[in-house]
Structure formats: C-alpha cells, structure tokens
Write a structure and sequence with these properties.
Number of strands: 14
Distance between the termini: 79 Å
Largest sheet: 3 strands, antiparallel
Helix content: 40-55%
Number of helices: 15
Structural class: alpha+beta
Order of helices and strands: HHHHHHHHHEEHHEHEEHEEEEHEEHEEE
Oligomer: single chain
C-alpha cells in the first residue's frame, strides 16, 4: 500500500486531460472510503482491547488526537463509525467496498444507539432489514435523502416518545487556521436551527444593496458576523472574565503605526489566539478602545496605561444623528450596524472629532480601508470614490428625447 501511494504521488497530473482526471478522482474517492472503513474497524478493535492504554491514553479518541493530531471532531467520528460498522454488517460491506464514506456511516450511527436498538427490539423491528434498506439509500440517493430517510425511521421508531431536550442536540466548535480564519462546525436542534436561520435571514435580506454580487453563502456569512456585531454593540451580553465582551488584539506599536503597503502582515494576535495583519488591527482600532502596554525584554508587562475610547459615546451619538446610516454610496445600513470611521486615520494625525467621523457598515468600512475613499462635502453630502479614482454615482439623471 505504501508503494502504491508513493507511485500515485509521483505521477505527473499536469499532462492529464479532463476525463482522465475525473476517472482518477473517482478511483481515489473509492480508495479513501475503503481506507476510512479499515481505520474505523481497527479503531473499534483498539477500543475493545483497550489498546490505547499501551501508550498511556484512556481512549482511542484521545490516542488519535495525541499521536496523530486529529481534531476532536474527526477522532470522535472514527470511533463512532467503528461502533456503527460493527452493528450494521451490510453497511460495513459497502464501506469496505468503498461504496459509502465514513460520513455516511456517521449519519447512520443513531440507528444502532443502545436506546434505538432497544426500541426496535421492543417493537419487533428487523434491524437487519433496516440495515439493508438504509445502505441501499446511502449508495443510490443523495446525502440529503439519506439524512431524511434516517430521520423518518427514527421518528417512526418513537412517535410518541418523550420530546428530547433541545440543548442535548446542539454543538458548536471553532477551528482556527494559521492565517487567522475560522471554520465553524455545528449542529442545532430543529427549533434552535430555525431561530438562528431566521435571525441570519433577517439581516441578510435587510442588507442587499443594488448590484450586490456576493453569493448567498457570502451574504449569510456577513449576516452572521453582523448579528454578532449587533449583540456586542448592544452591551447586553453577559460579562466575560469580569469585563464586557469585546474583540481584543495585541499588536506591536511599530506594526500598528506603519501604514506602508504590506507592512505588519500577521502582526496582531487576537484574544482567542488568531493571527491578523496590522491593517486589520488598524481597522478594528478605528472605532475601539486602545490601551498602551509597555512590555519588558523578557515579555513581562511593565506598565499599562488607561484605555482610550477613540470615539466616546457622546461623539458617536452626534455622528449617528448627523449621518443616520452608512455613508458609503448606495448603502442604507442602519446606524446600529455601523462603526465610526476616522476619515483621516488617527494614526496619520486625524482628529477624533465630529467633522472627521463617518458611519460605515462592516462591509464598507473594510472597503474604505482597502482603497475606496469617502469625503463629506460642505453641503453635508457624502461622496464615494473607487480605488481607481472614479466616483460611485447613484441615481444619475438621464435624458428622454421625444
């Protein structure tokens, strides 16, 4: 197997045509499914024989995390897949042949939980027949269809049972990557999922400017961040470690002040361990608190100054009354979605005052920090320019000839 993998890795794919690439991909997916099935089967054997104790680990899941650096989610999935394959032989045969993935095995796992097996026995359900039926669905229908079929079976298995505690059906994990981006994995109960989806949809549909080319997935991502922004700005969230929750960034003063192009990449560290560029840190500081901390040569704090709110509450209220919504051309995002932006950045000597402040929603605040420009005219109107110097004009008059 090792030799075959080495040979595959040595193949030159650049000379392959489309059909050959598709065929190769399909073969590799089948091979991966077969390998995953063997890993799950072996992990189950290790669980039964307490093999992890040999290396001082209590469980196979902790061994997988510690010795092979798998995530908690992935290690748990392999453990549960091994248990499921042991109890569903038809599914196990399909997995061994590469016809189904370990993800499919995970979907069928609730079918053979101790509780559901007891219910099936009490009602005279032939679990072997269910194994064959659901495996056929897994091999011939879409993943969504399989989830629906499994859900239908479980609902019929206990139609009048005790309604499950929704909090036991919820999970949410955040995986932080080396570039600071975060992947969210989660599962919500039916009602909780509806609540979150409704909240995201409300913001998503309230912020659809003309000419918006974002995909629906991007719109939903922006809406979720806006939902968090609104909650943080409201001041009504529970205290976190004795303080109101806020996004924190630690950055060296030289990186923060150096506005030259490309300077300070990966220079700031967030509260939860993410790494962001100095440009992103300057953007966050535009409408935030700034605290001076003097660090000694061995990394210990020597002095901490008073936190300074760049735009204090009374000044923000005045700017909200004046601007009413995001001032970027064509945007009407409400004031409570907006940051107060320094038109001339405070790092460049711009004053924190009414004349130098402007309301910008998150999306357009980012745009202005990446080349777009806004300017307030003597008559109070705001104008917006693209990075190439052309102005964004809204509602231009046109001539109708008779």
């Amino acid at each position: 197997m090792d030799g075959a993998l080495r040979a595959l890795a040595a193949e030159d794919l650049k000379s392959s045509f489309g059909p050959a690439v598709i065929e190769r991909t399909g073969s590799l997916v089948v091979a991966r499914n077969r390998l995953d099935a063997e890993v799950a089967r072996t992990v189950r054997e290790g669980e039964l024989t307490q093999a992890a104790e040999r290396d001082g680990k209590a469980t196979m899941a902790s061994w997988l995390r510690g010795h092979h650096r798998l995530s908690q989610r992935e290690s748990s999935r392999l453990v549960h897949a091994g248990r499921t394959l042991e109890r569903l032989p038809v599914l196990a045969a399909a997995a061994a042949a590469g016809a189904v993935s370990v993800e499919v095995v995970t979907v069928l796992a609730p079918v053979v939980s101790d509780v559901n097996l007891a219910r099936a026995e009490a009602q005279g359900v032939d679990v072997a027949a269910i194994d064959a039926l659901l495996t056929d669905v897994a091999m011939t229908r879409s993943h969504a269809d399989l989830r629906q079929a499994v859900g239908h079976y479980l609902a019929r298995l206990d139609p009048d049972g005790i309604e499950p505690d929704p909090t036991e059906q919820r999970s949410l994990t955040f995986t932080k990557h080396t570039d600071g981006t975060v992947t969210i994995h989660g599962r919500l109960d039916a009602v909780g999922g509806e609540k979150v989806q409704t909240a995201v949809e409300s913001i998503q549909h309230a912020s659809r400017p003309a000419g918006d080319t974002r995909s629906r997935a991007r719109q939903a991502g922006d809406a979720l961040v806006q939902l968090a922004d609104n909650a943080l700005a409201s001041g009504s969230l529970p205290m976190l470690r004795g303080h109101k929750p806020h996004v924190g960034v630690l950055i060296d003063l030289d990186d923060l002040m150096d506005t030259s192009s490309g300077a300070g990449a990966g220079a700031g560290r967030t509260t939860f361990g993410g790494i962001i560029s100095a440009a992103k840190a300057r953007w966050l500081a535009c409408d935030g608190n700034v605290t001076r901390i003097v660090i000694g040569p061995e990394g210990q704090p020597l002095d901490v100054g008073q936190s300074k709110r760049l735009f204090p509450p009374h000044l923000r209220r005045a700017i909200e009354v004046r601007d009413r919504h995001c001032v970027f051309a064509g945007c009407d995002a409400p004031s409570y979605w907006c940051d107060v932006h320094h038109v001339i950045h405070w790092i460049d000597g711009g004053d924190t005052c009414l004349d130098n402040g402007a309301l910008l929603c998150e999306r357009h605040h980012t745009k202005v920090h990446h080349g777009f420009r806004i300017e307030r005219q003597p008559d109070g109107r705001w104008r917006t320019w693209r990075p190439d110097g052309t102005e964004i004009l809204i509602g231009q008059p046109f001539l109708i000839s008779a």
